[in-house]
Specification:
The chain starts with 20 loop residues before the first strand and ends with a helix. By secondary structure, the protein is an alpha/beta fold. Helix 4 runs parallel beside helix 5 (131-151). It has helices at residues 40-48, 65-74, 89-94, 98-110, 131-151, 163-175, 192-201, 217-222, 255-266, 270-285; strands at residues 21-26, 52-59, 78-82, 115-124, 154-160, 183-185, 204-207, 231-233.
């Protein structure tokens, strides 16, 4: 059996960014492949060394929402977003536990200043394909929107193979009660037309390492469309590791690879883009202490 890679055998750190930025969506405590998860202290130290100075830690199952809150409360530089992942929602509903889980998310979010976002929530038609599961996901999505709206927190959206339905729900909620002030498309996977819809409504669009992939034409075309005051960058670590380390374990310290690719695609000055990304993360999620 091959020996498990140690932490020091992760991808090498890229050149530091010239200005601070924030990883707007991360799962620090999740393992990736055979790698052990980084501790929060390791994740923050490695990130700070390349000028990634804040992390949004996301808890997206009933098992890990409390842990995400505790991590954010214990560490400067980390804030939390918590919710029930759309693929988790049908499983909880089948056990009659979905409403209680969303109520627990609201209780934790209302009780901690370290929680700044509700989600990730939304629709996933890739892993949940049956119509009944789609209906449950939409029910949970609308419930999360209501929680985020009432608490004044950012709404963090997971959208996989469900662009039209996600937009339908958002526009319906906008017309009937309204949306939270901050809406973030986490790991944006749409095209330029969808990015224009987001821009029209003032929604944040967050790009992950997928924008560095050579075959990601839709993302390459969408990146220049997003207004400078609405663009974010993220890892979704330990997943979606940017080129040239695609397939290995991701972490916040690899954000500079994505930022530099975004600068190329947008024809943007790197310093100015970093300043925009940092300011936008603070506008969406507040200060990172």
């Amino acid at each position: 059996m091959p020996e498990r890679r140690a932490i020091h055998e992760r991808p090498a750190a890229p050149e530091p960014l010239p200005r601070p930025v924030v990883d707007a969506h991360c799962h620090i405590d999740m393992r990736g492949g055979e790698e052990d998860a980084l501790s929060p202290e390791q994740a923050l130290d490695l990130a700070a060394a390349v000028n990634v100075t804040g992390i949004v830690q996301v808890g997206c199952s009933i098992r890990d929402v409390a842990a995400a809150v505790a991590m954010a409360e214990a560490h400067d530089g980390i804030v939390a977003a918590i919710g029930i992942h759309p693929n988790e929602a049908p499983r909880l509903a089948a056990r009659g536990e979905l409403d209680a889980a969303i109520a627990e998310v609201e209780r934790l979010a209302a009780g901690s200043a370290a929680v700044r976002g509700i989600g990730e929530t939304g629709l996933d038609h890739f892993r949940t394909r049956e119509p009944e599961g789609h209906a449950t996901q939409e029910q949970a999505f609308r419930a999360h929107i209501d929680v985020a709206r009432r608490l004044g927190h950012a709404l963090v959206i997971h959208d996989r193979d469900a662009h039209a339905d996600v937009l339908r729900v958002l526009l319906d909620e906008l017309a009937n009660g309204g949306l939270p002030e901050v809406v973030q498309f986490h790991c944006f996977s749409g095209d330029a037309a969808m990015a224009r819809v987001a821009a029209e409504h003032g929604w944040f669009v967050s790009f992950a390492g997928t924008v560095t992939f050579g075959n990601a034409r839709d993302l390459h075309e969408a990146a220049p469309v997003v207004p400078r005051e609405r663009i974010l960058v993220e890892t979704d670590a330990p997943y979606l590791t940017p080129t040239p380390h695609r397939g290995r374990v991701n972490a916040s310290y690899l954000v500079p690879l994505t930022v530099r690719r975004l600068a190329e695609l947008r024809g943007a000055d790197l310093d100015a883009l970093c300043d925009d990304l940092h300011a936008n993360a603070v506008a969406a999620f507040g200060t990172f202490r």
